[in-house]
Input
Amino acid sequence: MRVLVVDPDPARAALVAEGLAGVEPLEVRHVRVFDQREAAKFEPDVIVVASNSPDRDTIESLREATVANPRPVVMFVDRSEAGLAEEAVHAGVSAYVVDGFSKARVRSVLEVAMSRFQLMNQLRLDLDKAKADLASRKTVERAKALLMKERGLEEDAAYRLLRKLSMDTGRPLGAVAADLLAFAGVLKGRSDG
Output
């Protein structure tokens, strides 16, 4: 496991590494301030941020980094201002622990954060797929309606025609439907203008 520890205090950062003793293979890198380029070069499996109090710049940097390259992030802070925990979670932090840092808890907190991250990431992927499927279905329905109107086809016949085009071209049904709608738009634009 590759762990990037972001902590201005080298002694506390060392405790994070000690808390992960027994994890094999393990590579821990310590930096005092979070840097996206450094994180990208190291490619950690998890990022651990430990500090007295989180600052909004670090949280914003984490947000930018996790959008570009999602990974679990754990924050151990001694104290927190109102609203910072919520900001951290929205920035992609998987676990936000206030006044609970101890080397004995590091491993279990990281394991839970990594599991939660995997679950949330799968939910995001499932949601994206569901949205894409819905958009594709809407496009297919619009293309069927166009074929029904322009060619005087029944709904089943319009669907069969789209499906045949999809199979003949080896392209997904939604892509064929989108092309048909785009082409019809071009032709309509020419006949109107």
In short: The helical segments are 10-19, 36-42, 56-68, 84-90, 103-151, 155-169, 173-192. The chain has two domains: 2-101, 128-192.
